[in-house]
Amino acid sequence: MTKDLGITVKKSVDFSDWYTQCVLKSGIADYSPGKGFIILRPYGYAIWENIKEILDDQFKKTGHKNGFLPVLIPESLLTVEKNHFEGFMPEVYWVTKSGNNDLGEKLAVRPTSETLAYSMFSKWISSYRDLPLKLNFWNSALRAEIKSTKPLIRNSEFLWQEGHTAHSNEKEASDEVRMILDLYKMLIEQYLAIPTVSGLKTDKEKFVGAKYTTCLESLMPDGKALQMATSHNLDQNFSKPFEIKFLDKDTAEHFVWQTSWGISWRVIGALIMVHGDDKGIILPPKISPTQVIIVPIYKDESKEIVKQKAYELENKLKDSNIRAYTDDRDEYTSGWKFNEWEMKGVPLRVNIGIRDIREEKVELIRRDTRERFYVKEKDLVNETLSILENIQSNMYNLAKNYLVTNTRNATHLDELLSLLDSTGGFVACSWCGKRECEDLVKEKTTADIRIIPFNTRKNISSCIACGKEGTTEVYFGRAY
Amino acid sequence: MTKDLGITVKKSVDFSDWYTQCVLKSGIADYSPGKGFIILRPYGYAIWENIKEILDDQFKKTGHKNGFLPVLIPESLLTVEKNHFEGFMPEVYWVTKSGNNDLGEKLAVRPTSETLAYSMFSKWISSYRDLPLKLNFWNSALRAEIKSTKPLIRNSEFLWQEGHTAHSNEKEASDEVRMILDLYKMLIEQYLAIPTVSGLKTDKEKFVGAKYTTCLESLMPDGKALQMATSHNLDQNFSKPFEIKFLDKDTAEHFVWQTSWGISWRVIGALIMVHGDDKGIILPPKISPTQVIIVPIYKDESKEIVKQKAYELENKLKDSNIRAYTDDRDEYTSGWKFNEWEMKGVPLRVNIGIRDIREEKVELIRRDTRERFYVKEKDLVNETLSILENIQSNMYNLAKNYLVTNTRNATHLDELLSLLDSTGGFVACSWCGKRECEDLVKEKTTADIRIIPFNTRKNISSCIACGKEGTTEVYFGRAY
Fold first, then answer.
1. Does B180 lie in the same domain as B65?
2. In this prediction, what percent of chain A has a pLDDT beyond 90?
């Protein structure tokens, strides 16, 4: 691999450039000719497919079903819930023509599907027997990002799933909101190896139209916060304007209680930011499309023997459900392959050459710690299983340690500002709950309340902004 | 189930109304508020997921990888290949605004992705080492259908997959075109139980921009033809305007040879048309989300015992990889359930009641023939496996018989017209290959050349239109 095919800037020197190079050069994504849009290349899509499979399985196990909604939504539907419409209006793409003809009514390109889905819910739901209705949609959403875009983190179109449910009582809806948030947390922590903080958004930051929004927030290595997923309790805010009513067993008519929730490919961006190093990205084994890359090292005379052994090892690993792959391309040198797979972040590499075959051993190279060591060929499968597990937990622990270290406390505005300016991260503060105080901090520090953590301190001191009695602990942070 | 919840018109009386009722009442799809658009409901989406899984597995086994392309395509890209643009122009939805701002350049809502994909191919391909490049995209395409729409058959947005490949030589590209067509045939015949005719489109009917289009055509029960899938050889028609070149081993620069291919949810529409009866749809076992529906029949005092037995049977069937499901809802009667599952086309029903449990037997009801019979409880799994297989082949054979019976020959225009008017179906004719003759037949009969079959008669007679020497056999038909 020639020099500029690799990552040419250090993560610690220019984090933003490093990130973009990682995304582009590892084959995760590329820029589309349309401004603000990106393309997911096979390597990136394979990661998304893994994420999808894990969540889809959980959604189905918890009684959700998939469907399809059109991407174009008539303007009149979008305006039914006023706050919702006003929130999304500035970033909606509008279809105004088909062929050369002007349309009678403008069509919005899906920014999210609440309005379309709920116009159908009012048709599908009439009795308690139709509830709960728990639907999910794997699609993409479009929101025009004019200013700053960043591949996977902020684009004009992104892959995601959106869940929409309707329930016959309030408790079932609020349980659903929390259950889904926990599923997201499971995915992000256990598979993507990224620790998260769970909690609530403030009224200012919640989803437009929701009663409240629960979310998961994580910290990126530059000290900025990233929202990873959200799960909203919509209460009856949509069921009333959309007239989604049901006849209960008591023959009384009620409006349904609703939830909506989503997670996007942004988590792939987080994965790259959190775990990557100067050589490229590093994928946690549980989510990596390829877990073990086998590189046969040969000269012309040993080629067939070494390749055969590589395939044999690959099959043994596959038999134990390890996603192994042999890079048997003759047109690239071993050195080139090492660099490429390192950049692509495959967690474990197996080098196998003619001498190793004779000595019945193989060389293993860990991507995370870059340690190299030999194992006996007969121990390969067991060693691999245990190393992959170790890599997974090592990656999580490193990230967890970063999160803990970079979550600090402040009791005064100047302390908060100095922490944000020096180390970034989350700054835990007491807050009185007033919007004015939230706005004041934003004005003085450019930081938002990222989250009101579920797990909060017992001792609330005075509000960071007004100094009056605090009612809750919140995490401030500068965000993507 | 009250009367109007069921299908209220006979298939033989009003085929079109019958079809629409089947689609809507079985829970496959529903109309979206946006004109021309439909929603796929969970039952329809589950069928699509099965189709997707079968094809995706085959695509991956044959070396294809999935990716994601944005749904909005800059106008300038779409115009690069002139014929292609002109072909799609009348039905393209255009985004002209984001929020309240006019866009500098209009964005087309994806009618198909050749142009966007190939603008990327020119960036990704530079050497023979980058070839073949074989990508696939599971997404939706939008083409404004102003006049007649029909759910799943003709809508303004449809779910599909589009494959796009680039090759270093002509033969590899033409082999790919045919290999993909065979995969589609395998899906449609072996899983959907619909016989197809494989062949070529005429130049008039081929994909705009292709060298040639191969396709699969089927016959619907009203005698109309339906195009089921297409696979195109693009030759170098796109690689030249998009400048997709590669340096070969001989260090010479060549344009790549390309293919594109797609299949849409239309095949679900075909499935309903071909197999359904007056009671609703009938799903072939291999594609049916639920293969066996178990209905426990109980009074209050036997409820728990019968339900437990039903779950036990369900688990036994599942252990043999049969997709079984127990309808244990108390709020519906058994009769209601029978009608509902009949309408939804589950291929086999198991009735189990307290007397059956005592006598260690269960009642089976076939959806296709509506036969009812008892089997010993201990034989349930084996009987089910063999019946499901029998249903699958029975459904295919019935449809095959219809196709064969309704493929007739004509040697004169008036004979062709009278066949089309009386029985419809395919009419095999000799053709001289001239566009004028194709147009003349269309004008006189409203029928198109649906396909030039690969398997053709040896003896070509004179052209059906001009009477001069015929060069090939073609199938005329009126089409959806």
1. yes
2. 93
Task: Give the gap in angstroms from C-alpha B250 to the nearest C-alpha of chain A.
Answer: 14
Task: With cut-offs at 50, 70 and 90, classify the pLDDT of residue A1.
Answer: very low
Q: What is the pLDDT of residue B223?
A: 97
Residue B282 falls within a domain, yes or no? no
Structure tokens at A65: 């079903």
As for how many domains chain A has, the answer is 3
Task: Answer whether residue A284 is part of any domain.
Answer: no
Instruction: Quote the Cα angle for A52-A58-A62, to 5°.
Output: 140
User: 């002509």: which residue's tokens?
Assistant: B170
Q: Single out the residue in B275, B301, B325 at which a domain terminates.
A: B275
Whether residue A321 sits in one domain with residue A376: yes
Q: Are A370 and A413 in the same domain?
A: no
- Residue pLDDT, tens place only, A374-410: 999 999 999 999 999 999 999 999 999 999 999 999 9
In this prediction, residue B1 has a pLDDT band, given cuts at 50, 70 and 90, of: very low
- B3 pLDDT band, cuts 50/70/90, is low
ipTM of this predicted structure: 0.96
Best interface-test mutation with A: which of B98, B160, B161 has the largest number of A CBs within 10 A?
Answer: B98
CB nearest to A32's CB, from B66, B92, B116: B116
- Tell me if chain A has a CB within 8 Å of the CB of B92: yes
Q: Is the pLDDT of residue A163 over 50?
A: yes
Chain A partners within 8 Å of B159 (Cβ): 68
Between B44, B49, B107, which is nearest A34 by CB? B107
Distance from CA of A358 to the nearest CA of B (A): 32
Tell me whether residue A45 is in a domain.
Answer: yes
pLDDT digits (tens, 9 = 90+) for B298-308: 998 999 999 99
pLDDT tens, residue by residue, B124-154? 999 999 999 999 999 999 999 877 899 999 9
CATH of the domain at A381: 3.40.50.800
Query: Which residues span the domain enclosing A398?
Result: 292-402
Q: Are residues B157 and B17 both part of a single domain?
A: yes
pLDDT tens-digit map of A189-216: 999 999 999 999 999 999 999 999 999 9
Of B135, B175, B209, B220, the closest CA to residue B403 belongs to: B220
Give the separation between CA A408 and CA A101, rounded to whole angstroms: 58
Do B412 and B372 lie in one domain? The reply is no
Residues A92 and A206 in one domain: yes
CA distance A24 to chain B (A): 11
Identify whether residues A62 and A158 lie together within a single domain. yes
Residues B376 and B428 in one domain: no
Which of A247, A275, A303 is the C-terminal boundary of a domain? A275
